[in-house]
Amino acid sequence: MAAPESGDGNNGAARMVTLISSDNTRFEVEAAAASLSQTLQLTILDGGGGGGDGIPLPNVDSATLSKVLEYCIKHAPAAANGGAPNATAVDRAELERFDNEFVNIDQSVLYSLIMAAHNLEIEGLQSLVAKKVADMIKGKSPMEIRRTLGFPDPTPEEQAEMNAHMLEYGWAYE
Amino acid sequence: MDPIVFSTTTLKRRRSDHGGANKATTTTVLHQGPDLISRLPDCVLGSIVSLLDTEEGARTAVLSSRWRHVWRSSAPLNLDDRLRPFYADRQRIPVISQILGAHKLGSARRFSLRHLHVISSISYYNDWLLLPVFDGLQELVLRFPIAAYRPEIPASALCFASLRVLDIYNCTFPASGCAPVFPCLTYLSLRHVCITEELLHGMITNSPGIEDMVLDTNYGHRQLCLSQPRLRHLAVSVMTAEKSTEEIELEDIVIKDAASLERLLLDEALYGPSVRITGVRNLKILGYLGTGFPVIELDTTIFKVASQALESSSSHNSESPFRKRGFRCSGPDARKRREEKRRGGEMKAADVAFKALTAGLGFATLYLAGTFSINVYRGLSWHSEQSIDSWILPLFCYKWMKFEGMSTIVSVLQLRNHYHVSSVIRLGSLEKVLTVELMQALSTCITIELNSYVLTGLHKLLAPAVLRALAPIADVSPFPSGDEATTTGHGRLFVADGLPLIHMQISASAPRCSAAVLLLPCSATSMPTRPLLPMSGQKRAPRTAGDNEFSTNCSRRRSGMAVLSSGCHD
Asked: Is A118 close to B10, i.e. CB distance below 8 A?
């Protein structure tokens, strides 16, 4: 197995790693992109994922993984720069636009994505999806939020708890 | 290789939360059905709730039993004392205490105190900031009530090493002591604070990650010399009215190695610090260049105030540029301009009615109508023979620079957030200015930058006006509704490759440098080669006359604005 390179990954041809989704689909990506995941980063630094092996990800299916990798590949160059001078305003704006499109997705896909981002510890993606859900909640009444997120109607006990809360935190409901 | 199994703890917790959940749900992706979001682990739900406003976060407790404890236990606290705008301090303080009490055991992400108005309220600040919930605080906004004196900032406010955002308003820093250290800080805003040179310098130097910095009307220091290679946005302003005789203000700012600097905003001022910045490689936005800044040096490019330059080189200049180009035109171009002026007059009834969310209250609705001066259109005609100031000057650019080592700046329009109405009119008029032909002729990069206060209420109105003109070449994305002070971005549009770049941005980091429009040529080849201010060929007017005319125009403009302003705020 290849000796671990230093973190910058710029030595000659980009190093590739293979990721295996829960349904056994293999994804080959640049190590720099996969390293956006804190979880994978350690394995990759140890030299894992190269050659014929691959890093199995039993909690992520192929559809979600391909979506996650789409994000990682897009964000890898900017992350490598660490916001250094090369990451110009245009790049930033382009990434922002990409992000907006990226989370414009169905709720079940969003859910898978949140879980994958959480499990793989991809910081940028975590905050992106959290912001997306927060935007779905913002400016809505509890009733509207329930409808948006598909919550079941409150049970009588929940209704009672709700009333108690409204009494306690009256300032939040005025 | 062993498979990586992720975060079994959260999966277990999730299973226990939903007793009946089986293996299929733990693999998460196969599950179809309603209410997926509630199945997320507590920490993820917490991070979502933390992004909501304080009241909205509290309200999530009534969504379902799953969400009941998320706000109190799992969500890093986002406490903004904005709450209800009509609250007096005696209503606001108990609510803050209640929230802090409910989060005794949790953590906090953001703490914003800026709506307490009674000076005695600040006795709470120190007690609150010492609570363990704030140990890992990331964002701190601390604005002190206006009083006859600037209260001293509690020492506890400067002890959060985890801070990413620090925004302080109207207070005095300790006169001596160690400079605080903020290794994670990316945003620093100091407004109306009194701070010694050593402390300010130490604090900024100890925070090498600062990307956005706002220094607005601060006292107690004369010079600031920094080396900030990561600084991207800088806004500097001093007292705009007149130089204070009692207090020391910034006179000289030097920034070395500003390799990342993209936006430099210097608020209009009648006087201001000299600005020297070296290592500039990425500057895209420069404005507003008031005449108050005696000298602005960006590497080898030096901007000096025109009147001063004229004074020093009177033998080379034929006439005050204000006279010659801006307000009195002669020759064939003038006739054309007068023609335009007349046509512009027909359109001058640019009545604008709008609703503006006032910054503090959030929902006061203001209606105002303004009539638009024909002067706006006077100089719009662009001819290759003309220098740029001949069309830009009548567009409210009542001051401008003489460029020495001229390289980038063409001109700047000043749009102040204090005068909402005039801002609208001006922005409304941009569609007349920013024609496709004009932009192509200039091959410009055009930036329109708007303060979030303006945008909060006005984006709906002004965006279409400006964007319509740009639609043929621009990929227009809508503005989001702005949340003052927490929003720092967005609403941008770009044109396709090879065409001019248009970039609109809401900025919360530019307090009174509200909006600047400037035209930067993308490439040197497309730049007009003649100097921006004509150097000869006209009979020189007596200096005094030129000056008088300038000041008259100034005062007229100012009084007009004052009227609009008072109407706006009433």
From this structure: yes
Please indicate whether, in this complex, the C-beta atoms of B492 and A56 are within 8 angstroms of each other: no
Residues of chain A neighbouring B4 (CB-CB closer than 8 A): 39-40, 43, 55-58
Residue B83 falls in which region: left (phi positive, over 0), alpha (psi -120 to 50) or beta: left
pLDDT digits (tens, 9 = 90+) for B48-61: 999 999 999 999 99
Place of tokens 């967005």: B490
Could you tell me what percent of chain A has a pLDDT over 70? 85
Q: What was the pLDDT predicted at B526?
A: 29
Report B:180-219 residues touching A (Cβ under 8 A).
211
The Cα–Cα gap between B520 and B443 comes to 8
User: Length of chain A in residues, anyone?
Assistant: 174
**CB within 8 Å of B398: residues ≥ 6 apart:** B326, B550, B553, B554, B557
Task: Name every chain B residue with its beta carbon within 8 A of the beta carbon of A89.
Answer: 262, 284, 503
CA angle, residues B396, B536, B387, in degrees to nearest 5? 40
The structural domains of chain B, with segments of one domain joined by +, span 80-305, 306-528+540-569
Which among B4, B12, B49, B281 is the top mutation candidate for probing chain A, defined by the most A β-carbons within 10 Å of its own β-carbon? B4
Q: Best of B2, B6, B83 to disrupt the A interface by mutation (most A CBs within 10 Å)?
A: B6
Residue of B nearest to A42 (CA): B4
Report d(CA B237, CA B518) in Å as an integer: 18
Rounded-to-integer distance, Cα B433 and Cα B379, Å: 10
Dig out the tokens for B191 from the structure.
Answer: 């407004």
Whether the CB of B20 is below 8 Å from some CB of chain A: the reply is: no
Reported as a single tens digit per residue, the pLDDT across A100-132 is 999 999 889 999 999 999 999 999 999 999 999
Q: Mean pLDDT of all residues in chain B?
A: 58
Round to whole Å and give the CA distance between B433 and B411: 13
Order of strands across the sheet that contains B223-227: B223-227, B252-256, B274-277, B295-298, B301-305, B401-404
Record: contact B83-A130, CB cut-off 8 A: no
Q: pTM of the prediction?
A: 0.64
Residues of B in contact with A137 (CB under 8 A): 48, 52, 56, 60
Distance from CA of A14 to the nearest CA of B (A): 22
What is the topology classification, in CATH, of domain B80-305?
3.80.10
* Cα–Cα dist B84/B100, whole Å: 17
Smallest Cβ–Cβ distance between A158 and the set B27, B52, B65 belongs to B65
Sheet strands (E) in B47-164: 77-80, 108-113, 139-143
Exposure string over A72-88, b if 16+ CB within 10 A, otherwise e: beebbebbbeeeebebe
HSE value, Cβ hemisphere, 13 Å, CA-based, for A158: 18
CB of B93 within 8 Å of a chain A CB? The answer is no
**Residue B413 to residue B104: CA distance in whole angstroms:** 50
Determine the residue of chain A that is closest to B284 in CA distance.
A89
Residues of B in contact with A119 (CB under 8 A): 6-7
The partner residue sitting opposite A138, judged by closest CB among B4, B52, B501, is: B52
- Which range, A81-85, B279-283, B446-450, has the best average confidence (pLDDT)? B279-283
Phi, psi dihedrals of residue A35, rounded to the nearest 5°: -75, -5
Residues B471-518 pLDDT 10s: 433 333 333 333 332 222 333 322 222 222 233 333 333 332 222 232
Q: Domains for chain A: give ranges and CATH numbers.
A: 16-138 (3.30.710.10)
The closest alpha carbon to A48, from B4, B90, B352, B568, belongs to B4
In terms of residues, how long is chain B? 570
